[in-house]
Amino acid sequence: xxxxxxxxxxxxxxxxVPEDYFNNLEEQLLxxxxxxxxxxxxxxxxxxxxxxxxxxxxMQQVPEAQxxxxxxxxxxxxxxxxxxxxxxxxxxxxLSIFDxxxxxxDIDTETAENYVINENIGTYEIASLLELENIDExxxxxxxxxxxxxxxxxxxxxxxxxxxxx
Length: 166
Prior knowledge:
Helices cover about 50% and strands about 0% of the residues. It is mainly alpha-helical. It has a domain at about 105-135. The longest helix has 19 residues, at about 75-95. About 0% of the residues are buried.
């Protein structure tokens, strides 16, 4: 079994410092500061005019650009193949196979209602589609609307402010 070391019983920290390190530390720091005061330069230098001529020397070492060979991405045969494929697809869509005429009888009433509701088509848009010649009173006289149906419709669809007559 492993013994668990308790932190409060450890006598040594594990860190060691050289002998007389703290006694000589102040003297070492002061001698380094005095040395900087006597000789402020680091001993490294740059030749005179080095940075003025640097760009010219670099440009002399860079080789001149050579003409590179240009390869066209679009070759004539690839363009012809692509144009042929596009023309055949266009021809396919223009064939009478896909020519299916829909009539008003094919449209389901529920689908039309959902379209009007979901597309937020208002009464003004619907009224603009109606022609006055097609509206006849006789079409509305033949409707047999019961009073209960009318009340239910008005309760569900009309607001009270529109029903009040001044």
